[in-house]
Each structure stands twice: as C-alpha cells, then as structure tokens.
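Risk register update: the risk that structure generation would not scale has been downgraded. Supporting records follow, first protein first.
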Amino acid sequence: MITLHDVKVWDTGEVIDLVIPGTAADLLTDADRPFPPAAAQVADGDVHIDATGLTVAPGLADPHVHFRDPGQTAKETMVSGCAAAASGGYTNVLIMPNTVPAMDGEKVAAGQPGTDEVLTAGHDCVIDFLQHYEADHGVTLPVAYDLCVCASKGRAGKEPTELADIAWYMPGRHTGEKDAAQLAHPVTAVSDDGSAVPDAILDEVLTRIKDAGLYLIEHCEHHDTGFINEGPVSRQLGLPGIPEDTELRIVARDIEAARRTGAHVHFQHVSTAGSFEAIRKAKAEGLPITCETAPHYIALTDEAILEYGPLAKMNPPLRSAADRQAVHAAIADGTVDLIATDHAPHTMEEKNAGLEAAPNGIIGLECAYGVCHKVLVDGGIISEQRLIELMATAPMHLMGHTPTDVAGLLNTSSACATKRTLDLGAVEHPESVNLVILDTDRPWTVEPERFHSKARNTPFGGWQVTGMPLATVIASKLVFSRL
C-alpha cells in the first residue's frame, strides 16, 4: 500500500491523504528515480510519502497519438508509446489510424508492409491486432486506449470506410459476445489523419458516422506544395510556403458539411487566426463543432524553423506570431476545447534528411504538460485548473469517457473530518479511477534522451519548463512514478 500524505485536490483545493493499493513490483520509473524514493518511510511493506505541495487530478488524456504499431516499429511501438504516455501523466489515449497497414477494419493480405506482424499474432485485421496486443505480446500496457478507424478505405480518399463492417468494434455493440480486450479498446472515432477527407466523399462519411454514433477527427489542412508556413521565413530560406488559408478552406468546408448533416466534426491541431474565428462563429450557432490545438502551436512560431530546422517541421506548419497570439486567445475564451499532442514519432535519421525531405511531426507526450504550463499558466493566460480541464477532463469527454471525479470519490468514501482520506482500494469501482499526481511548480529541463519513447524528434530539448507529472494511476494502481 502506498499513501501520499497532504496532497491537494485539483479543483477544490482540499488537502487529503491518498491511499493507492498494491505494490510497485511492475512500476515504470525513470532510470535514476527508484521507487520507493529515499525520502519515503516504509513500514511493514507500506510506503508513506510526504506529498505536501503536490496535486491530484484526473489523468491526462490525449485523443491524438501515433504509436506506429504495426508497420513502423523502428519509430515507436505500443510498449514504448504507452510508456511515454504514462511518463507524461496520461492515462487515456486515442490511437490514430495511419498504421501500416491502415486501420480501416479491412482484412490484411500477406506480403504487404506491416501485415506479417498482424498475421503472426493470429489476426487478419489491424483493429484485432491492437485490441489484443497485451495478451499476444505478454505485456501490460500502462495506459488505457481507444482506436480511431480510417474515414476512407486505406486512407486513400476514394471510398468511405464501411462502418457497418466494423460495428462489432464500436462501444455498446455486441457487448455480450466480445472478450475483455475488445470491450476495453473500442473504435470510437474516424479520421484520415494526415489528410483531410476529400470533397467527393465528405457528406457520405459524415452521414455514416452520425448514424453510427461516432465523430470525425478532421485533419483540417490541405496543400499540394510547400514545406513550411508561407511568410518571411519561407522567403528567407527560399522554400515554397504553405498559405494560411489552406487550413481555413477545410475548416469552412467542414462547418458547412456539419450544418448539412448534423454530424460532429472535431478539428485537429488548429493553428490559424482565421480558422479559430470560423470555429468560434460555428460554435455560437450551436453547430456540432469542437477543436483542439497542440503544444507546438502554443509555444512556437515559424521562426523556430531557423533554430530547430526539421525538428520544427510539421503539418499544419508552425505559423506566424500573430497566429500564435490567436491560439492563446482561443484557449483563453474557450474556443479551443482541448489540447492534444499529435505525438508523431520519427527516427532521427529521417528527421536529419533535411528540411524538404524530413517527415512532418514531433513527439509530445512526455513534455506537453510542462510546455503548456510554462506558456499558458506561468504566462497568465489561463489558470492551473483550466489547464487540467484542457488536458484531462475535456479530452475524456470527447472520447466518450467519464474523467475521474476526485471530490466525488471523497464524498462517497470518507466521512467528514479535519483531513479526509481517499482509499482507492475501497472505492466502489476501482477499475474506473485514473489519476495523475502533479508538481505544478517544479521547474525542469526537457531532456529527450531520457524519454521513454523510442523517438527523440522534438524541438523542446533543453527547454526550461514548469509543472511535472510525478505519478500516474490506472485503474487505481500506480503504474508510473518519479515521486
């Protein structure tokens, strides 16, 4: 049993003792931070830690991650990606469908890239492969995850995915016939992430997802040329630029499509002032529109290309200083519903191929909270509590889950006292309790070489940030600690 003494509840400010059942036998830690820590008191096998100044909150959640498994496991695997998530304080993630082969529910064929991994595990579909990953590989993954299926077959943009064929994998369908893994990791959204859904099939995709009770996670950007944002930096480097309206055109198009169909469209990684204004107006009309932005659009501008080169190359590209100000304003006024990392691992060999040849994307799970806290909270843009809403409770609601209500658990498990105790071993549904322990004031340096992810492609290496996730609790069990 592990007891954290005098930890603060994130939304009420109440100081409590938190009791976490079990031992730390399979606990993930940083290499130089063994558990229990030297400052802990151990008596009869129980660990007691002074958590004064620390905060307990619902676990962070990210509806936009790429774990590259199957097909690109040199970049990331389910094991390393989930370890990175737990290290960053995340308890729930949504895995994007641009696996190899693509996660579209279709049966895979031998001889194609990535299919050997699926077939060797005894499956003929990427969804089955990912749902049963733990049992097939003999591992316990320290994060809960749902799956996002392709909007079009093979992410090719030609034919809408046959959602009727994957109804089995959706929550609430055929529940009496599914095994525990299928119930735990359902398909909850669709996306052709990396590409916007093409005009020719957009309405059909939206009609199908509305009928299925899903939502579209839209990559709201399309361009045929260009590598970085069109502006002074692209001209200085002599590279073709990507105009800002490449994003706004998709946003405006999809808002009209949501109006026609009534389907829920969630815009990924929104980055421009014009897009935020269009989304702001659509939400004021009551249209089923939500959106996210990412830590890199919060913290960086296209000037970062001059300093970090390909490590700052992403899609949509980093934008102007004015657009970054618009990101901050949209977060402050509630236009932005949540913050997602778009965790996109690549090998450093790929990223070192030069600005034009390097793939888009950066990793983000292990430093997102610190970067966002440094810019948004330390910068006076939002409060500590609002950051938790953006990174924990709102993403959970989008994904169709209920975030852990710490205060509510206290009210049902502990009588009123000078200092109450929340014993996770005594709650009614311990399997539903996912938490993060945060030191919101701790300064630290981002060191990619210490990441649990296989990848190192981030421009934030060496950054001084504040706010560190110290422990992650999944299903009432401690799965990661740097206490």
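Supporting record for the second protein:
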Amino acid sequence: MTLNVDIRARVGSFTLEAAITAAEGEVLAVLGPNGSGKSTLLGAIAGHLDHAGRHSEVTGRIALGDRELDRSVPPERRRIGLLGQHTTLFPHLSALDNVAFGPRAQRMPRAEADDIARRHLADVGLSDLAERRPAQLSGGQRQRVALARALAAAPDALLLDEPFAALDVQTSAQARRLVSELRDKVSVPMVLVTHDPMDAVMLASRTVVLHEGRVVQQGPTGEVLGHPNSPFVAAIAGVDLVSGVGDRHGLLQTDHGTAGAIRWSGRGDELRPGDAGTAVFSPGAVRIHQAAHRDITMIDTPPNTWTGTVAHLESIPGGVRLFTTEHPSIAVDCSSMTAVEAGVRPDAVLSFSILAQDVSVRRSR
C-alpha cells in the first residue's frame, strides 16, 4: 500500500505545508536543517499532533492505502511504526519481551508473540541476546531491538526519525546496512528523516528537502542530490552550484564581474545561446594547480578552468576547504598533501580545473 500525505500542520507559531508520497517497499528520505519541519511531518503522520493539545493542528489528508488517517484515528490504531534516534525500550523487560510487546498488545497468544519476536530478533542479528535487558546492551544493539519491536507490530508503514544520529560511525554504518536489508524484505512504505545526505544516497530511491516548513525540492535521490535547484539545497547536498547563461558555443557562462567569467562544460542538458542554466559539481572534484603567469581576470581560458586568490581556509576531515576572493561561492576541497604541494595558503594565487565528466549542467526550467 502507498502512504499519501498532503497536509498543513501547525505547532505553536510554526506551520508546515507538505505533500509527499511513499510507495510500498520504498524508502523516502526527508532532508533539511533543524527547524525545517521534519519531525513535525512525522508527528502528523503518526497522529501525535492531533492529540497534542490546542497548540497544534493538522488539516489536509493522510491516507495509508485505502485507510484515511484523520484525527479520529488515534496513534495506536494507525498501524504506523515510529523509530527515533533515542530508543524507548522498556528497561524492566528483556529484548525478547520488548519485541513481543506489540503482538501481545494486539491480544496475540504469548507463545505466538514470542515466536514472532524471536524471528525479528534474528532478522536484526540479536538472537543470542534475547534475554538481556536494555541496560545490558550497547547503543547499536538497543537500536536494533527497537527496530525489531517496530516491525514485530506488523506496521503498514514505518517512520524513521534520525535513527542513526546517536550512533558512532561504525555502528551507524551497520545500522544503515540493516535498514537496507529490511527494506528489501519488508514491503511497507518507509519515511526516513535525516540531516545526513549519505542516508538518502544509501537507502532512499526518492528524496524530499524541507526548508522553513516548505518542500523546496523533491524527486529521485540522484536528481535532487546530483543537481540541486537552489543554493540552499546545494548546501544540504554538499556540492557547488553556479548559475549563468549559455554562450554561442553552448557552454554555460557565469559572470563574476571584475573576476572575469568561467565557462562550464559538462554532462546533462545542451544549452542554446541565452538559455539560463546551472552547473553542479563536488568541491572534491576540483583540481588545484600553481597559477601560471597570466592575468587572473582573463576570460579566454578553457572551460572549467579559473584562477583565484585564496581568501579563506577551513579544516575538513583529511584536508582543507578553500574559497577565493574572486569566486567566493565556490568551495574547493583538497587533501592535506595536495594543499602542501600546491602551496595553498592565504593570499596564494592558484589555478583550478575540473573535468567535464564531473560537472552536471542543466537548463533552468
């Protein structure tokens, strides 16, 4: 069955307007900064906002298959599982009893509920820890028990609210693999709220980006993260986005005033002269060279090539991110070794280039 949502949700002075769809067996990623409305969206779908008092209200339509989930349907009757970054396991119950809680609450015989719980614990690789209580488990193990518990209740949809945020790097990688495996085994729509584009890349076929309570872009994950439609979404995706117009050679030309122009060639749309368009590329795909002895304002340079004066440096894992005075909106990443070899330092004049195959060019629509 498909989850269809088209709502306007108010929580205090904040208002969310969003329309999303998650198909059976699909993971839909929802990206956005803190305060963009991600958790509000999940709360509305789960039914928590409808019963949160006079300071919240949900209008519009939420449907799961042929079931309408209006405010008359309380959370416990929606058959929607919710897994957050902080597990809410019952501390006095074993892992087995925590997982069996949902089936037992649905008045299933204890033996049958326990069998279901054991099967789901096996699915998450915790069969041998069934008798341990939450305090005896690691953070990653508790998260896996929580996921097993959500699935044991046989939900018609699953909501994942930053499920990897509280885990360390190694454990979060294991958790992602687990969700990926379960996605292929459990044919229910899943909505994954995250701040990390890597979650969307690894798990989601489609992605929605929220900003200040509005959907600013949605579509196939490769399209949304591979070619954002705005500087905001580009920042979320961690890529550079430049805008310009097509020149007589079919290249995208971006005008930087006294800094001259950069002409961009890449894969994607063909541009006609005067067409508005954008180019997107990864900061790490840019190559850095010691500058040639020439005027840095010249525009008759090859495509995807420019020169600039280092204005600002930032430390990133394993290297450096730099920005130039002439092109301050373009971030360039390089390894520490490359930075040393190229002479990266404040006020250094450097040349930059990027292969056409690493640039995505789109006509503005």
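Residues 3-226 form a domain with the Rossmann fold fold (CATH 3.40.50.300). On this basis the risk owner (M.S.) recommends closing the item.
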